[in-house]
Amino acid sequence: MQTDIINKPGLLNEKWLLISTLLSSTGNSMIWPVMTLYMTGVLHQSFTTAGFVLMIGAIISMIGSYIGGKLFDRWHPYQAMVMTSIITFLAVFSLIIWHDWPVFACFIWAANLSMGIEQTLINAFATTVSGNHTRIIFNNMYIVLNIGVVLGTLAVGYLFDYGFALLMMISATIYAILSVIIITKFHVANESADINTGHQLPKEAVVSTASMTYEKFKLTPVLIAIGALLFITYLSYMLWETVMAPHMKTLGMPTRNYADLWMINGITIIVLQKFVSNWANKHPYHVSVILGSVIFALSFFFLIFVNTFWQIVLVFELLTIGEMLQSPQVPAWVAQITPKEVAGQAQGFVSMMISSGRVVGPIYSGVMMDHGWTTTLFLSVFIVMIIITGLLALTLSRRVDKNSVT
Predict the structure, then answer these.
(1) For the domain that residue 381 is a member of, what is the CATH number?
(2) In a domain, 333, yes or no
(3) Is-contact 325 276, C-beta < 8 A?
């Protein structure tokens, strides 16, 4: 009888995984896109201060990602998900009442921690879903995640002027519903059971696992290159979540245009992702990821030359195509090249690299914007992303076992 999968969840119904992803994304998208705008426009803080708050939050989220991976592999995924969802709800609910400076930052950081854990756990749960290839599951998650982005940013664009507290009330309600779903639907199997056989393990077997040796997650050159690419991708992406709203306002565009931008982005993903995924699924992971990264990087080069809303839309559409090719493929690729026994830590690594980009992105862009170096900001992320994408391609070309990268 196998005992090396104790403390792993049973097979989760994909429907509940997707609904949870949708709710989490919607609630999240009602908070993060307006952080910089709220801190600079309402709380009267500088771009650098706002960037610092988001940087600390991203560090905390990165720690949460690490914790989430460990909890999935070595503790109880269900209990971890329940506790995390409740903490997120409490943090967002508190922002309804306490959203002045500096207590505002403290509750944002608490939400960062729980959301970091939650994202890793959801991705790790996705590797256990039956009935679909892991690649397809992550593509489906990516689609509903972006539906959530559309809904959340629409709410921000049309409700922000009515007050930050209203947005937090709606977001807290969403997280309350998410908590109920997690409590009732994620406890899919007795965690002391062998999920391969469906039989309950004897008490002696459960006790014996206290001294068992867990397989360790090991970084390979390919994983390091993938991690570096995730870092620069999400550092760059943070520009759209932080400085683009104020930048568009500087160009004379209303806040509603920023919400419209994300709505168009989300609709594009919803309509085209299946076509993009069908193409990507016919090719090795690295083909889709590298092509998507190059397209993603080019969008920042073209961003240097735009100054009207529809020009920004076209550039954002280019970025969206690159994102569709890259983002949903990476967690599935990492799951494919790492052992199942470290699924939680592997997805934790993905989330940590994403969070590390979010750490540097806000403070870097904040300092650059405070000095008026907008062009340099866009050009620098373009250059670095092209360099790292090239390094990933070079690393892959040097691998002896070509089958391991497909």
Answers:
(1) 1.20.1250.20
(2) yes
(3) yes
